[in-house]
Design brief:
Blueprint lengths: L1 E5 L3 H12 L3 E5 L3 H8 L10 H7 L9 H9 L6 E3 L2 H5 L4 E4 L14 H13 L4 E5 L7 H12 L4 E5 L9 H6 L4 E4 L3 H10 L7 E4 L1 H32 L3 H9 L19 H15 L5 H25 L6 E5 L14 H11 L3 E5 L4 H5 L5 E3 L3 H5 L4 E4 L4 H4 L3 H7 L4 E4 L6 H6 L3 E3 L4
Parallel strand pairs: 1-2, 1-4, 2-3, 4-5, 5-6, 7-8, 9-10, 9-12, 10-11, 12-13, 13-14
Helix pairs in contact: 1-3, 6-7, 10-12, 10-13, 12-13, 13-14
The structure holds uridine-5'-diphosphate-xylopyranose (UDX).
Length: 444
């Protein structure tokens, strides 16, 4: 099927490359000329495991491709992904147009939908035949109605609007696209439904076919529930710390109940990333705007903030005054397997430590370049041992596998004092104490 993707960020690029991999003719569109030029050269604007190979396999330049990959392409009809900055050109031949532009939070927490409105206008004005316009960006419920109204004013031909929210986790996005727990499509016509069912036919997963508003709400409700689950286990972790219970045992004990489920019960310094914080605030604003309130989500945010404060207190308990102390930090990204630091707990934690006069040394396997534009006056190290050298304590903020393999005997020798404060419970408490570390972690 001929499809167009507008917006080549995490959602748009993964969606475009994966649909191309499934044999569709895909055109990816973005207003950012530089981004488009780079994509034409096979250069990615984001880091996502497996994306580089998938992009190479589905674009023309066979430069860095194995003979096997090239021959594989020759077998099946091969449609190289096209990249353009023009919505008019890029959507001309497409029957489905996915809106994947950013919907960042305004200061009020409400989603900024100006980009959605802008591209909808351009789609409507350039249409010369039927199009199915699909909102994939995370949008507040009833955005679909807005898109429809705007299209009705501007479009000269028939069209349909649909909602098809994504549930991609950064670092697992390609896997999540190809192996989703479910596909959600919100449609208002048989034609729209049949087009999307055909498009998603190669993916074996339950498909929820519903109306547009329900599909939009499923997205916000999903992310808000997941964030709630994390804050719940973090609140229980704080009780464990006061009562000598072990949060990992508690999480295992509750998670075996199939109605709770074991995932997303890892206590830590809280959730970050662009989605959870943004979607929680957006969902609360949506509730307020329709005259209800969703105070539970305010408490979910409060607990998330509290976890960072409690982590700082653990450092103060260990070091007493922080002024002029040297604090080593391992992990800056909001979670492993990504360079993304949006709303990463590391940012608030490091800034608070700096306000207390501490000197900070940092290392992260992927996020160092991103960090340099966010964190000032920190010493950027090239490996974990350099961070530990001469530091008064070592903090773990992101659970990269690399940190789980550290030579702790070497780390202990390098530290000024053997203090490790683990924000993601990557080490065994017993092991650390046996090795003579003063070890603090979360909820155990
Ligand atoms: C999330 C949703 O999972 C995904 O479905 C949605 O499309 C986008 O938002 P993402 O933000 O990429 O994905 O990361 P995720 O793996 O969900 O983790 C989010 C945050 O929660 C991270 O900061 C992570 O450290 C934290 N987390 C996750 C916990 O603190 N404990 C857990 O048990 C799981």
């Amino acid at each position: 099927m001929k499809i167009a993707i507008i917006g080549t960020g995490h959602v748009g690029l993964i969606t475009g490359v994966c649909f191309a991999e499934l044999g569709n003719e895909v055109t990816c569109i973005d207003a950012d000329e530089v981004k488009i030029q780079n994509l034409k050269k096979g250069l990615l604007p984001i880091y996502e495991p497996g994306l580089q190979e998938l992009l190479a396999k589905n674009t023309v330049n066979t430069g860095h491709m194995s003979q096997g990959l090239i021959s594989l392409r020759l077998k099946s009809p091969f449609y190289p992904i096209k990249f353009t900055t023009s919505i008019k050109d890029g959507t001309k031949d497409a029957i489905v147009i996915f809106i994947c532009v950013g919907t960042p939070p305004k200061s009020s927490g409400e989603a900024d939908l100006s980009a959605v409105e802008n591209v909808t206008m351009q789609i409507a004005e350039s249409m010369s035949d039927y199009k199915l316009v699909v909102e994939k960006s995370t949008v507040p419920v009833r955005t679909g109605i807005r898109i429809k109204q705007l299209m009705e004013q501007r479009a000269k031909t028939k069209f349909d609007v649909a909602s098809n929210p994504e549930f991609l986790r950064e670092g697992n996005a390609i896997y999540d696209f190809m192996h989703p727990d479910r596909i959600v499509i919100g449609v208002e016509s048989e034609r729209a439904k049949n087009i999307l069912l055909e498009l998603y036919q190669p993916i074996k997963a339950p498909i929820v076919v519903t109306d547009i508003e329900s599909a939009e709400l499923i997205k916000h409700a999903s992310n808000s529930f997941l964030a709630t689950k994390i804050s719940f286990i973090n609140a229980v972790a704080l009780i464990c710390e006061k009562t000598g219970a072990n949060i990992e045992q508690v999480a295992q004990g509750i998670g075996l109940d199939h109605r709770i489920g074991k995932d997303f019960l890892n206590a830590g310094i809280g959730f970050g990333g662009f989605c959870f914080p943004k979607d929680l605030r957006a969902f609360r604003r949506i509730a307020e705007k329709i005259g209800t309130d969703f105070n539970l989500l305010k408490e979910v945010e409060n607990i998330n903030e509290e976890m960072k404060k409690r982590f700082i207190s653990k450092i103060e308990d260990s070091l007493w005054n922080l002024k002029d102390k040297v604090i080593g930090v391992l992990g800056l990204a909001f979670k492993p397997d990504t360079e993304d630091m949006r709303y990463a707990p590391s940012i608030d934690i490091i800034k608070t430590l700096q306000e207390e006069g501490a000197k900070i040394k940092v290392y992260d396997p992927q996020a160092m370049n991103v960090a340099k534009s966010i964190l000032k006056d920190v010493e950027y190290c090239s490996n974990p041992y350099q961070v530990a050298e001469g530091s008064d304590c070592l903090c773990i903020l992101t659970e990269w596998d690399e940190f789980k393999e550290l030579d702790l005997i070497k780390i202990k020798k390098l530290l000024k004092s053997p203090i490790i404060i683990d924000g993601r419970n990557i080490f065994s408490k017993q092991e650390m104490q046996k090795m003579g570390f003063k070890y603090k972690s979360i909820g155990r």
